[in-house]
Structure formats: C-alpha cells, structure tokens
Amino acid sequence: MSNGVSTRAALNQLWAELMLEELVRHGVKHICIAPGSRSTPLTLAAANNGKLTIHTHFDERGLGFLALGLAKATAEPVAVVVTSGTAVANLLPAVAESGLTGEKLVLLTSDRPVELIDCGANQAIRQQGIFSSHVTAFEDIPSPTQDISPAWLLSTIDKVMYQQTQRGGAVHFNCHYPEPLYGEGSDFSAYLQPIAHWQSGQARFTQYIDAERSGTAVDLERWQQLQRTKGIVIAGRVAPDELAAIGALANALGWPLLADPQAGGSSDWAGFDVWLQNDECRQQLLQADSIIQFGGRLVSKRLGQLLSAKPWSHYWLVDPLAVALDPSFAVTARIQANVSCLAERLTELSGSSGAIYHGWADCLKAASSQCLATARDKYPVLNEVSLAAHMMDWVDRDTTLFLGNSLIVRLLDMCGRMPPAATFANRGASGIDGLIATAAGVQRANQQPMLCVLGDTSLLYDLNSLALLQAVNQPVVVVVTNNDGGAIFDLLPVPDAQKDSLYRMPHGLSFEHAAGMFGLAYASPGTLAEAKLAIEQGLATEGATVVEIKTPAGESGKLLRELFGEIKHATLL
C-alpha cells in the first residue's frame, strides 16, 4: 500500500470522512466548526456529509458553548471541530461544564503529526490528555496510514461513543494530520475492502448491546416505609416536561414540592429561599423525615442548608446520570433512572397504599403567597428585585428560558414564580463564561422564542457570542441586568475595603453600542411598565433584542437585606 506524499492529503480526507460518517450513525446531527487549516480534513468531510447541520463561530471558546447548548436542547451528541494549538485549550470551559452535567460533546481536535510536537513547530502544543478528567474518554488518532486498517478506525470510534452512552459528558478524538492538507482524491478501494459491508449499509461498524435494564424498579418495602413519613419532594435540574410527573407524585403523596428555577416551572411553595429564613417556616419544614429529590445542582442556598441540617430517615436522589449530586452527604439512596418513568411509577404505587401525612405542609402555601406578594408590592419601581418578581409573568409557556449564573437567577429563585416552560442553565460549574453562546445553541436546536436572562459581567465575558444571534429567525430577548459589576458579592461577607476594587470590579459600561455593532435591537427601559413592553415586544418580533436594565451599584443587596429582614420577622403561619 502506498503512503506517499501524493496520497497523504487524500488519506487524511478519507479518515476524516470515515470518522464523521460513523459519528452520524451514533446520532450526531450537528457539528460546530471554527476556522483553521490543520482541521481541513474534518471541515471538508463535514461539508461533504449531507446528514450534518454545520454551525460556525470564529471564537473557539464560544464554539464549545454553542455545541453545549445544542447538546442540552437535543439530548444528542454534538461534534466540535477546531484546529491545533490554543484553539483546543479554549474548549476547556465548555468541556468542564459538560463533564458535570452530562451533555454529550464529541471533540474533534486537529494536531500536528507526533514528530512535530515539542520541537518548536508552529501552532503545536501538547494536546494529548489536555482535558484531563473532564472528558469521559480520550483517543489519540495517529496520522492516517494505509498500514492501519479502516476497521480499526471505525471500531475505535464505536468504543469511545459507547462509553459516552454509558456515562455522558464529552469525548475527545485528537487527530494528527500531516501535510499536505489539500489535494486531489485517490483510489482507496482495496484499502477499504475490510469495511465494504459497513459502506453498503447504515449500521455502526461495531454494535454494543446492553442487556435490558428497567428504569422503574422500586424497592417496595422501602417505598412503603418512606411514604408513611412526612416528606418533601424537590425538583432540581431536570429535562423539559419532567416536572409534570414530579408534581403528580408530590400531589399523590400530599407533600410540598420545592422546584428549582431549572425545573421548568414552579409550585405553591415558591419563594422558599426567602421564607426559609423565617424560623417558624423552617421549623415546620424540618418536621419532614424524608426527601425525594429529582435532579441536582440546586440554586437555593437556604434549601442546601436545610438538607444539611439533620439526618434524614430516607433521602432518595434520582437522576439519569451516574454522577455524585450530594453536597450535603445526606442521601440514603442514589437512584440512576429516567426521572419521568420513576416518578410515574412511584405515583402509581402511592395510589395503592396512600400516604398518611397528606397535606402536612400545606400551611406553608400561605407563607409562599405572602412572601411573593411582599416582593411584588414592596418595590413598585424598576429594580432587580421587582424585575425578578414580575418578569416571568410576561413569558408564555412556548418561550424557552435560559438563566445565567448571576444575581438574577438567585432573585428569580427568591422572588419569582417560574412559568411551565423549557428552562436551561449552565449550573454544573456555574461559570459566567459562554452563556450567550450556550443560549444560542439551545435556541438553534429548538427553534422557539427565547428569553435569556443574565448579568452585566456575564455579557461582557461572552460579548463575542452576540454574533451568534445575528441571524436568528425566532424572537430572542437577552435581558441583561447592569448593576455595574459583580453585585452578587453584596450578598457575601467580603471585606468592605476591597469590595469594589477586588470583587465587584465596576466597569462603567453599557451595552447599546455592543448591540448596534452586532446589528441587534436594543432597549433600556426605566420603569416596570417599559420593561414589560420591551420584553413582550421583543418576544413578538423576529430577531434578537438586548434589553438592558440599569440599576445602581449596591442597590440589590440593600433591597434584599430589607426583604429578608421583613420576612424573617413576619408572622407567616
């Protein structure tokens, strides 16, 4: 077999085409590509594969988060192609997030051939293992050669992708491509003979088969014990539409449902992060002996403190991922299962024997109502608290929500009632990077109107990714709460002397010209009525709109301290 320079470019291209076709057979439909020469074989292979939808971005960090958003919304693997060097390193933030929350990224990084590493060659870094434990699996793909059977290449893809089906997260293929990278095709029919059966069909080269596993098996004795106690149902980060099954279970048991902002809805016990600061309410909830929690990554600090406050007789935590989600170290049963299936099965079992403490925490509904009403009525002017208390009333259930990791998501948890809408967030590592790019990926996948809510520092961090919103064909509203820096630090015991210079880091910037640079509509309302109008108009108009809510630095912390003090000393029960 010939491995000469004349066939090298064609062989590079062939291996890339084989890889992408096998990834398509593993369910990859979207591929995200950044510009680069070393990645030419993969880029052209993607362009030549009609089964792939191509997304491009000039910023590799944003590209990784774009892929993350696509993977979140589709629940399918999404491929990412970048060139060699620091382009690869820029994927790490998105990879770290996917490693914690399970989105399936397929990283196809291009590399110099091994003889050009550590010798001073241009744009060459050590890419092997660069993502460390943040990826589920890594495979170093050698420079294409006819001395290696194409059957090895396909079976290697299958091995790694099977690991991803078992554990989720990102997988990394580091592909060494020697020059030339551009050239004419060659006849490889003899070389491809070992995979002729694969070429003639649509199946994967190697089929991995799991024995059937039930996601709804329940220990009946434990369940009978658990439902005869006072308990709490918690909905954390769950998939869209799963909250309905969780709510049905809570209703069947007669237990309170505490829904995180990521759960895609709310309950009659909303605002618990605030009313749990009232000792009478907290003691009422601490009468519970049992917890059933679906999904992790809870926003509420007060709920986290409650979960750590005592040993629970039963604490079941249900999530489809095989990851640890127990920062309080209190879980007594960690169940890996489909959330809806298990919730529905438990609801059926609840009907057969019934819970004896049905409605035991219904008195807290009034506390919730009073808490939310206080947040709504106390501040008739536009500020971050009043925005959080009212904003979700302006959104219908067909609007996708993307929540940033700023003060505003905590305010929504404290003061708002989330609508029954598909809700997404990056709450694995909870970074403020890549939020616009992730939201753009979610929106491209589901093609629904979107409301993205984030803070000013978060938007500054991902300003490049506003370019990804230039051509949206659905309404997209980006609400940015601009409090001139990191207002979250007003809620933390940081030293006053260094609060501004080392923590809040005020920037004095606004976003009107940034929106204009990317051709996006812009509004800066000054009242609640104007904010309502701007958001509603934006959600009714094709294209992207930036709605900037400007508030004085330090105001939100002051308002929250006032609210907390009032609720803490109020008679709520």
From TrEMBL:
Pfam families: TPP_enzyme_C (PF02775), TPP_enzyme_M_2 (PF16582), TPP_enzyme_N (PF02776)
Chain ranges of the Menaquinone biosynthesis protein MenD middle domain: 190-403
InterPro entries: DHS-like_NAD/FAD-binding_dom, MenaQ_synth_MenD, MenD_middle, THDP-binding, Thiamin_PyroP_enz_TPP-bd_dom, TPP_enzyme_TPP-bd
Catalytic activity, EC: 2.2.1.9
Keyword Thylakoid (UniProt): no
Swiss-Prot/TrEMBL GO biological process terms: menaquinone biosynthetic process
Annotated metabolic or biological route of this protein: Quinol/quinone metabolism; 1,4-dihydroxy-2-naphthoate biosynthesis; 1,4-dihydroxy-2-naphthoate from chorismate: step 2/7; Quinol/quinone metabolism; menaquinone biosynthesis
CDD domains per UniProt: TPP_PYR_MenD, TPP_SHCHC_synthase
Enzyme class, first EC level, given as a word: transferase
GO molecular function: 2-succinyl-5-enolpyruvyl-6-hydroxy-3-cyclohexene-1-carboxylic-acid synthase activity; magnesium ion binding; manganese ion binding; thiamine pyrophosphate binding
SUPFAM superfamilies recorded: DHS-like NAD/FAD-binding domain (SSF52467), Thiamin diphosphate-binding fold (THDP-binding) (SSF52518)
Cofactor: Mg(2+); Mn(2+); thiamine diphosphate
Cofactor note: Binds 1 thiamine pyrophosphate per subunit.
Keyword Nucleotide-binding attributed: no
Signal sequence, renumbered to the chain: none
Record domain Thiamine pyrophosphate enzyme TPP-binding: where: 422-549
Catalyzed chemical reaction(s): isochorismate + 2-oxoglutarate + H(+) = 5-enolpyruvoyl-6-hydroxy-2-succinyl-cyclohex-3-ene-1-carboxylate + CO2
Keywords: Magnesium, Manganese, Menaquinone biosynthesis, Metal-binding, Thiamine pyrophosphate, Transferase
Domain (Thiamine pyrophosphate enzyme N-terminal TPP-binding): residue spans on this chain: 16-127
NCBIfam families: menD
Protein family (similarity comment): Belongs to the TPP enzyme family. MenD subfamily.
Function noted in UniProt: Catalyzes the thiamine diphosphate-dependent decarboxylation of 2-oxoglutarate and the subsequent addition of the resulting succinic semialdehyde-thiamine pyrophosphate anion to isochorismate to yield 2-succinyl-5-enolpyruvyl-6-hydroxy-3-cyclohexene-1-carboxylate (SEPHCHC).
Matches recorded under HAMAP family: MenD
Assembly and interaction partners: Homodimer.
Protein name in the entry: 2-succinyl-5-enolpyruvyl-6-hydroxy-3-cyclohexene-1-carboxylate synthase
